[in-house]
Protein backbone atom coordinates (compact mmCIF):
# COMPACT_ATOMS: atom_id res chain seq x y z
CA UNK A 1 0.00 0.00 0.00
CA UNK A 2 2.84 2.43 -0.48
CA UNK A 3 4.62 3.98 -3.38
CA UNK A 4 3.28 4.21 -6.90
CA UNK A 5 1.00 6.93 -8.13
CA UNK A 6 -2.75 6.98 -8.13
CA UNK A 7 -4.70 7.78 -11.30
CA UNK A 8 -7.81 9.60 -10.20
CA UNK A 9 -10.91 9.21 -12.38
CA UNK A 10 -12.56 12.62 -12.55
CA UNK A 11 -16.32 13.10 -12.89
CA UNK A 12 -17.18 16.78 -13.16
CA UNK A 13 -20.15 18.17 -11.25
CA UNK A 14 -22.57 19.35 -13.95
CA UNK A 15 -24.61 21.13 -11.29
CA UNK A 16 -21.60 23.04 -9.89
CA UNK A 17 -22.39 26.41 -8.33
CA UNK A 18 -22.21 29.41 -10.64
CA UNK A 19 -19.40 31.91 -10.21
CA UNK A 20 -21.89 34.38 -8.74
CA UNK A 21 -23.20 31.84 -6.20
CA UNK A 22 -19.67 30.87 -5.22
CA UNK A 23 -18.48 34.47 -4.89
CA UNK A 24 -21.43 35.22 -2.63
CA UNK A 25 -20.48 32.33 -0.31
CA UNK A 26 -16.78 33.26 -0.35
CA UNK A 27 -17.60 36.82 0.71
CA UNK A 28 -18.94 35.52 4.04
CA UNK A 29 -18.15 31.83 4.44
CA UNK A 30 -18.54 31.36 8.21
CA UNK A 31 -17.17 27.97 9.24
CA UNK A 32 -18.21 24.56 7.94
CA UNK A 33 -21.48 25.71 6.42
CA UNK A 34 -20.83 25.47 2.68
CA UNK A 35 -19.09 22.84 0.62
CA UNK A 36 -17.33 22.90 -2.70
CA UNK A 37 -18.62 21.18 -5.85
CA UNK A 38 -16.51 18.03 -5.62
CA UNK A 39 -15.16 15.43 -3.24
CA UNK A 40 -12.35 12.93 -3.50
CA UNK A 41 -12.57 9.31 -2.47
CA UNK A 42 -10.34 6.28 -2.37
CA UNK A 43 -11.49 2.77 -1.42
CA UNK A 44 -9.60 0.26 0.64
CA UNK A 45 -10.27 -3.42 1.09
CA UNK A 46 -8.38 -6.06 3.02
CA UNK A 47 -7.87 -7.99 -0.20
CA UNK A 48 -7.24 -5.14 -2.69
CA UNK A 49 -5.54 -2.42 -0.64
CA UNK A 50 -6.05 1.20 -1.82
CA UNK A 51 -7.93 1.38 -5.09
CA UNK A 52 -10.47 3.28 -7.22
CA UNK A 53 -9.30 6.84 -6.53
CA UNK A 54 -11.96 9.25 -7.75
CA UNK A 55 -12.95 12.88 -7.93
CA UNK A 56 -16.71 13.15 -8.12
CA UNK A 57 -19.54 15.62 -7.50
CA UNK A 58 -20.03 16.49 -3.82
CA UNK A 59 -23.08 14.62 -2.58
CA UNK A 60 -24.57 11.90 -0.38
CA UNK A 61 -22.54 8.76 0.28
CA UNK A 62 -24.40 5.48 -0.17
CA UNK A 63 -24.00 3.47 3.01
CA UNK A 64 -25.42 0.15 4.10
CA UNK A 65 -27.44 0.45 7.35
CA UNK A 66 -25.16 -2.15 8.89
CA UNK A 67 -21.97 -0.28 7.91
CA UNK A 68 -19.61 -0.71 10.86
CA UNK A 69 -18.99 3.03 11.31
CA UNK A 70 -22.66 3.61 12.16
CA UNK A 71 -22.48 1.12 15.02
CA UNK A 72 -18.94 1.05 16.34
CA UNK A 73 -17.61 4.46 15.28
CA UNK A 74 -14.56 3.14 13.46
CA UNK A 75 -13.73 6.54 12.00
CA UNK A 76 -10.95 9.13 11.88
CA UNK A 77 -10.52 12.53 10.30
CA UNK A 78 -8.10 15.37 9.68
CA UNK A 79 -8.42 19.12 9.32
CA UNK A 80 -6.11 21.52 7.49
CA UNK A 81 -6.41 24.58 5.34
CA UNK A 82 -5.54 25.76 1.85
CA UNK A 83 -4.43 29.40 1.71
CA UNK A 84 -4.46 31.73 -1.27
CA UNK A 85 -1.32 33.85 -1.55
CA UNK A 86 -1.25 37.33 -3.05
CA UNK A 87 -0.09 35.97 -6.43
CA UNK A 88 -3.14 33.66 -6.56
CA UNK A 89 -1.22 30.43 -5.82
CA UNK A 90 -2.69 27.93 -3.34
CA UNK A 91 -0.70 26.42 -0.48
CA UNK A 92 -1.28 24.12 2.44
CA UNK A 93 0.51 24.13 5.77
CA UNK A 94 2.47 21.02 6.81
CA UNK A 95 0.11 18.57 5.06
CA UNK A 96 2.65 15.79 5.55
CA UNK A 97 2.24 16.24 9.32
CA UNK A 98 -1.52 15.82 8.97
CA UNK A 99 -0.93 12.76 6.78
CA UNK A 100 1.32 11.20 9.42
CA UNK A 101 -1.13 12.04 12.20
CA UNK A 102 -3.88 10.38 10.20
CA UNK A 103 -1.70 7.26 10.04
CA UNK A 104 -1.30 7.33 13.84
CA UNK A 105 -5.05 7.77 14.25
CA UNK A 106 -5.61 4.91 11.81
CA UNK A 107 -3.40 2.59 13.84
CA UNK A 108 -5.34 3.32 17.02
CA UNK A 109 -8.71 2.79 15.32
CA UNK A 110 -7.57 -0.39 13.52
CA UNK A 111 -7.96 1.35 10.16
CA UNK A 112 -5.54 1.05 7.22
CA UNK A 113 -2.77 3.64 6.95
CA UNK A 114 -3.11 5.82 3.87
CA UNK A 115 0.39 6.52 2.49
CA UNK A 116 1.30 10.18 3.11
CA UNK A 117 1.91 10.71 -0.63
CA UNK A 118 -1.66 9.58 -1.35
CA UNK A 119 -2.94 11.91 1.37
CA UNK A 120 -1.17 14.93 -0.14
CA UNK A 121 -2.18 13.88 -3.66
CA UNK A 122 -5.84 13.69 -2.56
CA UNK A 123 -5.59 17.34 -1.45
CA UNK A 124 -4.07 18.31 -4.79
CA UNK A 125 -6.93 16.55 -6.57
CA UNK A 126 -9.63 18.50 -4.77
CA UNK A 127 -7.78 21.78 -5.34
CA UNK A 128 -7.36 20.90 -9.04
CA UNK A 129 -11.15 20.88 -9.48
CA UNK A 130 -12.25 23.28 -6.74
CA UNK A 131 -9.32 25.72 -6.51
CA UNK A 132 -11.67 28.60 -7.30
CA UNK A 133 -13.26 27.93 -3.89
CA UNK A 134 -10.14 29.06 -2.02
CA UNK A 135 -11.19 32.52 -0.83
CA UNK A 136 -8.90 35.52 -0.91
CA UNK A 137 -10.31 37.83 1.77
CA UNK A 138 -8.08 38.38 4.83
CA UNK A 139 -8.10 35.45 7.30
CA UNK A 140 -10.13 33.21 5.01
CA UNK A 141 -9.09 29.84 3.63
CA UNK A 142 -10.47 26.60 2.27
CA UNK A 143 -10.80 24.12 5.13
CA UNK A 144 -9.93 20.60 3.96
CA UNK A 145 -11.52 17.69 5.76
CA UNK A 146 -10.06 14.27 4.93
CA UNK A 147 -11.85 11.41 6.71
CA UNK A 148 -11.90 7.65 6.73
CA UNK A 149 -14.52 5.22 7.95
CA UNK A 150 -15.54 1.57 8.10
CA UNK A 151 -18.14 0.94 5.42
CA UNK A 152 -18.25 -2.83 5.57
CA UNK A 153 -21.78 -4.15 6.11
CA UNK A 154 -21.28 -6.45 9.07
CA UNK A 155 -22.40 -6.36 12.70
CA UNK A 156 -19.60 -8.38 14.25
CA UNK A 157 -17.18 -6.34 16.28
CA UNK A 158 -13.82 -6.49 14.49
CA UNK A 159 -11.85 -4.16 12.23
CA UNK A 160 -13.82 -3.67 9.02
CA UNK A 161 -12.38 -5.02 5.80
CA UNK A 162 -13.90 -2.35 3.58
CA UNK A 163 -12.97 1.25 4.23
CA UNK A 164 -13.66 4.54 2.52
CA UNK A 165 -11.41 7.60 2.52
CA UNK A 166 -12.85 10.94 1.44
CA UNK A 167 -11.82 14.57 1.23
CA UNK A 168 -14.39 17.35 1.31
CA UNK A 169 -13.67 21.07 1.39
CA UNK A 170 -15.42 24.02 2.97
CA UNK A 171 -14.58 27.72 2.61
CA UNK A 172 -13.77 29.16 6.03
CA UNK A 173 -13.67 32.46 7.85
CA UNK A 174 -13.04 32.67 11.60
CA UNK A 175 -14.18 29.65 13.67
CA UNK A 176 -15.46 31.85 16.49
CA UNK A 177 -18.05 34.47 15.50
CA UNK A 178 -16.00 37.18 17.26
CA UNK A 179 -12.91 36.42 15.15
CA UNK A 180 -9.75 37.07 17.14
CA UNK A 181 -11.63 38.56 20.11
CA UNK A 182 -10.76 36.82 23.38
CA UNK A 183 -13.11 34.00 24.40
CA UNK A 184 -14.24 32.53 27.72
CA UNK A 185 -13.60 28.88 28.49
CA UNK A 186 -15.66 26.55 30.68
CA UNK A 187 -13.87 24.03 32.86
CA UNK A 188 -15.77 20.76 32.86
CA UNK A 189 -15.57 19.05 36.24
CA UNK A 190 -18.17 16.36 35.57
CA UNK A 191 -16.82 15.01 32.31
CA UNK A 192 -13.51 13.94 30.82
CA UNK A 193 -12.68 13.77 27.14
CA UNK A 194 -10.35 10.80 27.13
CA UNK A 195 -8.69 8.41 29.52
CA UNK A 196 -5.40 6.60 29.87
CA UNK A 197 -4.99 4.07 27.10
CA UNK A 198 -8.06 5.43 25.31
CA UNK A 199 -8.35 7.23 22.00
CA UNK A 200 -7.58 10.77 23.19
CA UNK A 201 -4.52 11.16 20.98
CA UNK A 202 -6.38 10.02 17.86
CA UNK A 203 -8.51 12.33 15.76
CA UNK A 204 -11.59 10.17 15.90
CA UNK A 205 -15.25 11.14 15.96
CA UNK A 206 -15.93 9.52 19.34
CA UNK A 207 -13.71 12.04 21.13
CA UNK A 208 -15.84 14.83 19.69
CA UNK A 209 -19.11 13.01 20.42
CA UNK A 210 -18.12 12.79 24.08
CA UNK A 211 -17.26 16.50 24.11
CA UNK A 212 -20.70 17.64 22.89
CA UNK A 213 -22.55 17.50 26.20
CA UNK A 214 -19.83 19.34 28.17
CA UNK A 215 -19.48 21.74 25.22
CA UNK A 216 -23.22 22.46 25.46
CA UNK A 217 -22.73 23.06 29.19
CA UNK A 218 -19.96 25.52 28.31
CA UNK A 219 -22.28 27.34 25.90
CA UNK A 220 -24.96 27.57 28.62
CA UNK A 221 -22.40 29.39 30.75
CA UNK A 222 -21.58 31.77 27.92
CA UNK A 223 -18.30 30.05 27.07
CA UNK A 224 -16.94 29.33 23.60
CA UNK A 225 -15.13 26.09 24.43
CA UNK A 226 -14.88 23.47 27.13
CA UNK A 227 -11.60 22.67 28.91
CA UNK A 228 -10.94 19.09 29.95
CA UNK A 229 -8.72 17.87 32.76
CA UNK A 230 -7.07 14.46 33.00
CA UNK A 231 -9.59 11.75 33.72
CA UNK A 232 -7.83 9.96 36.56
CA UNK A 233 -7.08 12.82 38.95
CA UNK A 234 -9.04 15.74 37.51
CA UNK A 235 -5.98 17.89 38.20
CA UNK A 236 -3.95 18.34 35.04
CA UNK A 237 -4.86 20.39 31.98
CA UNK A 238 -5.53 18.39 28.83
CA UNK A 239 -7.04 20.44 26.03
CA UNK A 240 -10.19 22.12 24.81
CA UNK A 241 -12.95 20.38 22.87
CA UNK A 242 -11.24 21.19 19.58
CA UNK A 243 -8.01 23.02 20.36
CA UNK A 244 -4.78 22.83 22.32
CA UNK A 245 -3.99 25.24 25.11
CA UNK A 246 -0.96 27.41 25.92
CA UNK A 247 -0.05 29.52 28.96
CA UNK A 248 2.36 32.44 28.71
CA UNK A 249 4.36 33.43 31.79
CA UNK A 250 5.44 36.92 32.81
CA UNK A 251 9.05 36.12 31.85
CA UNK A 252 7.95 34.98 28.36
CA UNK A 253 8.11 31.23 29.09
CA UNK A 254 5.53 29.24 27.13
CA UNK A 255 3.92 26.27 28.86
CA UNK A 256 1.66 23.67 27.30
CA UNK A 257 0.31 20.43 28.76
CA UNK A 258 2.07 17.14 28.12
CA UNK A 259 -0.32 14.20 27.98
CA UNK A 260 -0.72 11.05 25.95
CA UNK A 261 -4.48 11.54 25.77
CA UNK A 262 -4.56 14.82 23.85
CA UNK A 263 -4.31 15.52 20.14
CA UNK A 264 -0.82 16.46 18.98
CA UNK A 265 -1.74 19.74 17.34
CA UNK A 266 0.20 20.83 14.29
CA UNK A 267 -0.64 24.45 15.03
CA UNK A 268 0.69 23.97 18.57
CA UNK A 269 3.89 22.37 17.33
CA UNK A 270 4.40 25.26 14.89
CA UNK A 271 3.70 27.93 17.51
CA UNK A 272 6.17 26.33 19.91
CA UNK A 273 8.79 26.39 17.15
CA UNK A 274 8.13 30.08 16.45
CA UNK A 275 8.47 30.79 20.18
CA UNK A 276 11.77 28.88 20.36
CA UNK A 277 12.98 30.82 17.30
CA UNK A 278 12.41 33.98 19.32
CA UNK A 279 14.59 32.63 22.10
CA UNK A 280 11.67 31.97 24.44
CA UNK A 281 11.71 28.99 26.78
CA UNK A 282 9.14 26.35 25.89
CA UNK A 283 7.98 23.79 28.44
CA UNK A 284 5.83 20.80 27.54
CA UNK A 285 4.96 19.27 30.88
CA UNK A 286 2.10 18.46 33.17
CA UNK A 287 0.24 21.61 34.20
CA UNK A 288 -2.28 21.67 37.01
CA UNK A 289 -5.46 23.68 36.89
CA UNK A 290 -4.26 25.46 40.04
CA UNK A 291 -1.14 26.60 38.21
CA UNK A 292 -3.41 28.45 35.78
CA UNK A 293 -5.78 29.74 38.44
CA UNK A 294 -3.12 30.90 40.89
CA UNK A 295 -0.82 32.08 38.10
CA UNK A 296 -3.41 34.47 36.70
CA UNK A 297 -4.30 35.67 40.21
CA UNK A 298 -0.67 36.40 41.09
CA UNK A 299 0.20 37.88 37.71
CA UNK A 300 2.71 35.09 36.92
CA UNK A 301 0.57 33.86 34.01
CA UNK A 302 0.00 36.83 31.75
CA UNK A 303 -1.66 35.30 28.67
CA UNK A 304 -3.53 32.14 27.77
CA UNK A 305 -4.47 31.10 24.27
CA UNK A 306 -6.08 28.29 22.32
CA UNK A 307 -4.60 27.01 19.08
CA UNK A 308 -5.69 24.74 16.27
CA UNK A 309 -6.36 24.75 12.56
CA UNK A 310 -9.90 26.07 12.95
CA UNK A 311 -9.14 28.42 15.86
CA UNK A 312 -5.72 29.50 14.53
CA UNK A 313 -4.58 31.28 17.72
CA UNK A 314 -7.44 32.57 19.84
CA UNK A 315 -6.85 34.53 23.05
CA UNK A 316 -8.56 33.24 26.19
CA UNK A 317 -9.82 36.02 28.43
CA UNK A 318 -11.47 34.02 31.14
CA UNK A 319 -11.77 30.57 32.67
CA UNK A 320 -15.04 29.76 34.40
CA UNK A 321 -16.24 26.81 36.42
CA UNK A 322 -18.66 25.93 39.18
CA UNK A 323 -17.54 28.15 42.03
CA UNK A 324 -14.69 30.12 40.46
CA UNK A 325 -13.79 32.52 37.68
CA UNK A 326 -10.28 33.39 36.58
CA UNK A 327 -9.60 36.52 34.54
CA UNK A 328 -12.29 38.78 33.18
CA UNK A 329 -14.41 38.42 30.07
CA UNK A 330 -13.32 41.77 28.69
CA UNK A 331 -9.58 41.24 29.17
CA UNK A 332 -7.74 42.31 26.02
CA UNK A 333 -5.82 39.84 23.86
CA UNK A 334 -2.25 39.26 25.04
CA UNK A 335 0.63 40.85 23.17
CA UNK A 336 2.61 37.67 22.59
CA UNK A 337 -0.59 35.82 21.61
CA UNK A 338 -1.31 38.38 18.92
CA UNK A 339 2.24 38.58 17.67
CA UNK A 340 2.57 34.77 17.39
CA UNK A 341 -0.76 34.69 15.58
CA UNK A 342 0.47 37.38 13.21
CA UNK A 343 3.72 35.56 12.50
CA UNK A 344 2.03 32.20 11.96
CA UNK A 345 -0.59 33.60 9.59
CA UNK A 346 2.02 35.70 7.78
CA UNK A 347 3.88 32.47 7.01
CA UNK A 348 0.70 30.62 6.04
CA UNK A 349 -0.42 33.40 3.68
CA UNK A 350 3.05 33.83 2.17
CA UNK A 351 3.68 37.28 3.65
CA UNK A 352 6.81 36.10 5.48
CA UNK A 353 9.51 33.70 4.27
CA UNK A 354 8.72 30.03 4.92
CA UNK A 355 11.95 29.44 6.85
CA UNK A 356 10.94 26.01 8.16
CA UNK A 357 9.71 24.65 4.83
CA UNK A 358 6.17 24.31 6.16
CA UNK A 359 4.29 25.22 2.99
CA UNK A 360 3.35 22.81 0.21
CA UNK A 361 1.94 24.09 -3.04
CA UNK A 362 -1.30 22.35 -3.96
N1 LIG B 1 -7.10 19.28 19.86
C1 LIG B 1 -8.27 18.90 19.33
C2 LIG B 1 -9.18 18.09 20.15
C3 LIG B 1 -8.59 19.27 18.01
O1 LIG B 1 -9.73 18.90 17.45
C4 LIG B 1 -7.67 20.06 17.27
C5 LIG B 1 -7.98 20.48 15.90
O2 LIG B 1 -7.68 19.83 14.96
C6 LIG B 1 -6.47 20.42 17.88
C7 LIG B 1 -6.22 20.02 19.17
C8 LIG B 1 -5.43 21.22 17.14
O3 LIG B 1 -4.82 20.48 16.13
P1 LIG B 1 -4.26 21.16 14.83
O4 LIG B 1 -3.45 22.33 15.27
O5 LIG B 1 -3.45 20.13 14.16
O6 LIG B 1 -5.43 21.58 14.03
C1 LIG C 1 -9.68 21.64 13.43
O1 LIG C 1 -9.24 22.65 13.97
O2 LIG C 1 -9.30 21.30 12.30
C2 LIG C 1 -10.66 20.78 14.08
O3 LIG C 1 -10.86 19.71 13.66
C3 LIG C 1 -11.35 21.27 15.27
C4 LIG C 1 -12.79 21.54 15.13
C5 LIG C 1 -13.11 22.54 16.22
C6 LIG C 1 -13.28 22.02 13.82
UniProtKB/TrEMBL annotation:
Any single Pfam family the record assigns to this protein: Aminotran_4
InterPro entries associated with the record: Aminotrans_IV, Aminotransferase-like, B_amino_transII, BCAT-like_C, BCAT-like_N, BCAT_family
SUPFAM superfamilies: D-aminoacid aminotransferase-like PLP-dependent enzymes
Entry cofactors: pyridoxal 5'-phosphate
Enzyme class: transferase
Family annotation (NCBIfam families): ilvE_II, PRK13357.1
Protein name, UniProt field: branched-chain-amino-acid transaminase
Species of provenance: Luethyella okanaganae
Organism placement in taxonomy: Bacteria, Bacillati, Actinomycetota, Actinomycetes, Micrococcales
Amino acid sequence: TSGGTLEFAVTRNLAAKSTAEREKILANPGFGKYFTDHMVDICWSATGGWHRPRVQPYGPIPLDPSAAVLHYAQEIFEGLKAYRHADGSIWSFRPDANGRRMQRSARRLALPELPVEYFVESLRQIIAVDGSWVPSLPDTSLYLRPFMFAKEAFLGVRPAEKIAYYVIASPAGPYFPGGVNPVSIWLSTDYARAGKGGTGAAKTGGNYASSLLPQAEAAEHGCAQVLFLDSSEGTYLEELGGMNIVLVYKNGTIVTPESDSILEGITLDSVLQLARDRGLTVEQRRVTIDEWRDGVASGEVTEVFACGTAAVITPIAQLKSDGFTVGSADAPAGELTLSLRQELTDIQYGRLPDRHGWLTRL
